[in-house]
């Protein structure tokens, strides 16, 4: 029992790390969603330049590994702009940009999944494009977007483990640190795995509930 | 002076010629019925009138003024028309009342209280006063379509366009929708109705237009046209509809 304080120390360490993983994921989902929503509106716009640019954005960020994007920001920014970026800034910027790419597509698909007849009905009572979009289409699209957004959240949360590679102290990096300090590899990563699973599974359960409620309403 | 008149309307869709030199006119207070097999261009014609679709050639005159296609003119012209769709297209996240008041409040800049009082009167007219606070999902097809009619009326359009208003309905609820339309016709509302309900057409329309493959094949007074079709295509169409 003499090493109990040590165990508690490690437990706190792991939980803090899990909190950071969750926090950075929430941050990128929130900011990424705001950016992605704006981009999705440009993506469906009839202005070719806007739709082409946002299309390219979404495809590039979805079509390259987030690890490579992390490296590009981490090693690239100092070379190009002569600024040193902290691991946190690198991870936050990369994950936000990456999530924004996915959210652009999720919102675009959701907006286009709303029945065409809703546009017709909005137009025939005299609404402008902007009124129809924000008063009729977007509220319905938001509901459609909820399940894929929660899926995206789970996926970004797991992807955030890659931030460990550039030394960002999130859950995976915490596992590596404990492994180095205690040399009990199996235990350290079993705990890490359990924590990831606990978070992701709770999110899955939450998303099933939300889907069920959306179906009923 | 006709309220609405078209001259040689033409429209193409993915290489298909869906409207071919369509010319017709509607008088104020008239109910005009458009008949025709599916894919004959009837719906497209209606959607061109309120500019949900663009035309490739020809001119539409509303109150003898040719329609323009800049954004402002399009929005202004749409307010001359109310449209009722085959699939109702009510806003699912809004109650019957909110469906009706949305246009007057956001587009017409009418005060909420006034818009609601009006909406209740229109619901009364379509006999759904008791469903004011019900969501579309809880209404039958016939009820939804009557709310849709009330929604269109609330914008006080000069012409009502009906795009197969009873085609998606259960037989037992068709009557209640036709009933409302009959009343509107009696009140001399200007209506253009695309339908397959021949009995209804015979009863309320003075004139009928028969379209096939994007063109007007026959046009005439409803009784004559339905009982003595001149063209083989209309004869075949009437046979098919009656013996369905």
Helix and strand arrangement:
The complex is a heterodimer of chains A (217) and B (244).
Chain A lengths: L3 H40 L4 H15 L3 H16 L5 H27 L2 H9 L4 H31 L11 H12 L2 H32 L1
Chain B lengths: L3 E10 L2 E11 L4 E5 L6 H8 L7 E6 L2 E2 L4 H8 L2 E4 L11 H12 L4 H14 L15 H14 L4 E5 L7 H16 L4 E4 L3 H7 L2 E6 L2 E7 H6 L4 H11 L2
Parallel strand pairs in B: 3-8, 3-9, 6-7, 7-8
Antiparallel strand pairs in B: 1-2, 1-4, 4-5, 9-10
Description:
The complex is a heterodimer of chains A (217) and B (244). Chain A is an all-alpha fold and 217 residues long. Helices cover 84% and strands 0% of the residues of chain A. Chain A is built from eight helices and no strands. In chain A, helix 1 (4-43) packs antiparallel against helix 6 (129-159) and helix 5 runs antiparallel to helix 6 (129-159). Chain A is flat and about 70 Å long. The mean pLDDT of chain A is 93. With 244 residues, chain B is an alpha/beta fold. Chain B is built from nine helices and ten strands. Chain B has helices spanning 42-49, 71-78, 96-107, 112-125, 141-154, 171-186, 198-204, 222-227, 232-242; strands spanning 4-13, 16-26, 31-35, 57-62, 65-66, 81-84, 159-163, 191-194, 207-212, 215-221. Chain B has a six-stranded mixed sheet, sandwiched between helices. In chain B, strand 7 (159-163), helix 6 (171-186) and strand 8 form a beta-alpha-beta unit. In chain B, helix 3 runs parallel beside helix 5 and helix 5 (141-154) runs parallel beside helix 6. Chain B is globular. Chains A and B meet through helix 5 and helix 6 of A and helix 2, strand 6, helix 3 and helix 5 of B.
């Amino acid at each position: 029992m003499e090493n109990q304080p040590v165990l508690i120390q490690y437990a706190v360490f792991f939980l803090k790390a899990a909190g950071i993983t969750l926090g950075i994921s929430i941050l990128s989902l929130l900011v990424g969603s705001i950016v992605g929503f704006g981009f999705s509106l440009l993506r469906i716009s009839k202005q070719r330049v806007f739709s082409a640019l946002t299309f390219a954005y979404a495809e590039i960020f979805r079509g390259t590994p987030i690890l490579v994007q992390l490296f590009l920001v981490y090693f690239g920014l100092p070379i190009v702009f002569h600024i040193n970026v902290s691991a946190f800034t690198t991870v936050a910027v990369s994950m936000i940009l990456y999530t924004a790419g996915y959210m652009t597509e999720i919102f675009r698909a959701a907006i286009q999944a709303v029945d065409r007849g809703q546009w017709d009905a909005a137009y025939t009572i005299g609404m402008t494009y902007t009124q129809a979009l924000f008063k009729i289409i977007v509220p319905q699209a938001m509901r459609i977007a909820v399940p894929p957004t929660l899926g995206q959240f789970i996926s970004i949360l797991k992807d955030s483990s890659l931030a460990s590679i550039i030394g960002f102290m999130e859950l995976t990096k915490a596992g590596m640190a404990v492994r180095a300090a205690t040399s009990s590899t199996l235990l350290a990563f079993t705990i890490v795995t359990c924590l990831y699973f606990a978070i992701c599974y709770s999110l899955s359960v939450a998303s099933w509930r939300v889907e069920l409620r959306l179906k009923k309403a | 002076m006709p309220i609405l008149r078209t001259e040689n309307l033409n429209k193409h869709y993915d290489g298909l010629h869906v409207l071919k030199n369509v010319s017709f006119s509607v008088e104020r207070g008239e109910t005009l019925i458009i008949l025709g097999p599916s894919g004959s261009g009837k719906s497209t014609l209606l959607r061109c009138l309120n500019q949900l679709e663009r035309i490739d050639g020809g001119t539409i005159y509303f109150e003898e003024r040719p329609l323009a296609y800049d954004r402002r003119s399009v929005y202004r012209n749409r307010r001359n028309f109310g449209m009722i769709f085959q699939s109702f297209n009510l806003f699912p996240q809004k109650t019957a009342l909110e469906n009706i008041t949305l246009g007057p409040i956001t587009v017409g800049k009418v005060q909420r209280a006034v818009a609601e009082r009006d909406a209740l009167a229109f619901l009364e007219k379509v006999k759904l006063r008791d469903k004011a606070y019900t969501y579309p999902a809880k209404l039958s097809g016939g009820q939804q379509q009557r709310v849709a009619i009330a929604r269109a009326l609330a914008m006080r359009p000069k012409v009502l366009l009906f795009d197969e208003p009873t085609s998606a309905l259960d037989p037992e609820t068709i009557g209640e929708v036709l009933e409302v339309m009959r009343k509107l016709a009696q009140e001399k509302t200007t209506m253009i109705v695309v339908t397959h309900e021949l009995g209804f057409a015979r009863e309320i329309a003075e004139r009928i237009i028969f379209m096939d493959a994007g063109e007007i094949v026959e046009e005439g007074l409803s009784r004559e046209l339905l009982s003595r079709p001149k063209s083989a295509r209309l004869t075949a169409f009437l046979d098919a509809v009656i013996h369905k």
